[in-house]
């Protein structure tokens, strides 16, 4: 069963490679293109293009889903398997992160933060198997940022709409336009930060590969036949860049995206007002009940 | 004449992209300052290394944002804008 789940977790990635080989036209030489659009669904308000980045991100979601099932299959309290230890380690780390950054009230955010972290990191790491990374498409990352923005606004509304509106007039009321701009800029800057980092990494990698091709043609171009055309310098050297741009930058951006989500959500939440309001509401309820009780008694 | 117009469009886009990337100076200086301060802090208190490193990486990523705005504009100017502008030119000629 565990082997089956592990195979199911790897299968989506292989399916992604197969889809890429079968349907994406091969590029001649080195060029920089965006995501390939497979087909477009016609909707009343315009076409909905289904692109490579969407398909790849769904494949990553499927793969992570089966990987989580693989890790948590057959949980025990005694003689724990290695899988269970890994799963518990992940849960403990994420809960510690959420507790230290958001506080006890937001402990329910653990799974969400872990999902964003895993999805973002694995999407960026897709470049390692040669697939198009969904995080270098602004639509995908913009969607995540919109989700974070909705969460931030929801938690700001928790203490009532009046306090939400009042938060724009701080510290002085005439700064309200600037506060509104900074409110809108939050999701835009989050999306641009993640997408720009991944995209700039892939563009710089392509430029370096083009440079190495030209250089090796200059140096080895005099060799006869196949040897003259083969780009020798492209063996190994781009891998050093890939360690930084794919492994380090991808992981760091995933961490920063989830970190900023935590900080913004817990930072915008008006804690004191919320608890005050909750206490007032409960007191009101109890008063009402007490009055009803006394009325019923009479 | 048409070649000249398209040439001016392409040249303008490339120049604009280059000028936009001047914004890379700012994050460079800012991140340098941040890392320098972090190094000093670690030198003074080596036991707080992990906390300082995490905070520094966060701060660096946030400081990088302005540079990335410039990068996005430069990418748009190189890959998207020339096609748009040439299309507009051809449509206006008819």
Structure characterization notes:
The complex is a heterodimer of chains A (about 300) and B (about 90). Chain A is mostly helical and about 300 residues long. Chain A has one domain (about 90-295). Helix content of chain A is about 70%, strand content about 5%. Chain A is built from 10 helices and 2 strands, in the order H-E-E-H-H-H-H-H-H-H-H-H. Chain A starts with a helix and ends with a helix. Chain B starts with a helix and ends with a helix. Chain B is built from 4 helices and no strands. Chain B is an all-alpha fold and about 90 residues long. Chain B has a single domain (about 1-95), classed as F1FO ATP Synthase (Up-down Bundle), CATH 1.20.20. The longest helix of chain B has 29 residues, at about 65-95. The chains are: A mainly alpha (about 300), B mainly alpha (about 90). The interface of A and B includes residues 32, 197, 252 and 256 of A.
Structural class of chain A: mainly alpha
Shape of chain A: elongated
Please indicate the count of domains of chain A: 1
Order of helices and strands of chain A: HEEHHHHHHHHH
Mean pLDDT level of chain A: 85
Shape of chain B: rod-shaped
Largest sheet of chain B: none
Largest interface: pair, residues per side: A-B, 16 and 12 residues
Number of helices of chain B: 4
Question: What is the ordering of alpha helices and beta strands of chain B?
Answer: HHHH
**Beta-strand level of the residues of chain B, as a percent range?**
under 5%
The CATH architecture of chain B is Up-down Bundle
The CATH class name of chain B reads: Mainly Alpha
């Amino acid at each position: 069963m565990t082997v089956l789940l592990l195979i199911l977790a790897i299968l989506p990635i292989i399916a992604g490679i197969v889809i890429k080989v079968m349907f994406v036209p091969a590029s001649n030489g080195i060029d920089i293109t965006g995501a390939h659009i497979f087909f477009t669904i016609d909707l009343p308000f315009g076409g909905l293009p289904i692109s490579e980045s969407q398909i790849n991100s769904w494949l990553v979601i499927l793969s992570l889903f089966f990987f989580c099932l693989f890790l948590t299959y057959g949980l025990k309290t005694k003689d724990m398997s290695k899988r269970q230890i890994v799963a518990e380690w992940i849960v403990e780390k994420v809960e510690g992160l959420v507790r230290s950054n958001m506080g006890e009230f937001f402990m329910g955010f653990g799974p969400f933060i872990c999902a964003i972290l895993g999805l973002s990191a694995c999407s960026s790491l897709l470049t390692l198997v040669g697939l198009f990374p969904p995080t270098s498409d602004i639509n995908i990352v913009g969607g995540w940022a919109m989700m974070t923005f909705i969460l931030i606004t929801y938690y700001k509304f928790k203490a009532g709409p009046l306090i939400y509106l009042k938060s724009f007039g701080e510290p002085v009321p005439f700064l309200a336009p600037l506060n509104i701009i900074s409110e809108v800029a939050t999701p835009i800057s989050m999306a641009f930060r993640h997408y720009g980092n991944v995209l700039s990494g892939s563009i710089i990698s392509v430029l370096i590969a083009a440079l190495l091709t030209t250089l090796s043609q200059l140096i080895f171009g005099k060799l006869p036949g196949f040897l003259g055309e083969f780009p020798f310098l492209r063996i190994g050297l781009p891998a050093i860049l890939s360690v930084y741009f794919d492994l380090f930058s991808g992981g760091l951006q995933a961490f920063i995206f989830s970190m900023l989500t935590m900080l913004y959500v817990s930072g915008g939440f008006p804690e004191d007002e919320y608890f005050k309001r909750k206490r007032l509401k409960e007191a009101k309820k109890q008063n009402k009940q007490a009055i009803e009780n006394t009325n019923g008694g009479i | 004449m048409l070649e000249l117009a398209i040439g001016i469009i392409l040249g303008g886009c490339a120049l604009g992209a280059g000028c936009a990337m001047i914004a890379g100076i700012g994050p460079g200086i800012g991140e340098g300052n941040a890392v320098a301060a972090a190094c000093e802090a670690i030198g003074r208190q080596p036991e707080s290394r992990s906390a300082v490193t995490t905070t520094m990486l966060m701060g660096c990523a946030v400081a990088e944002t302005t540079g990335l705005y410039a990068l996005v504009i430069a990418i748009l100017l190189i890959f998207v804008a020339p096609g748009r502008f040439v299309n507009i030119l051809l449509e206006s000629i008819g």
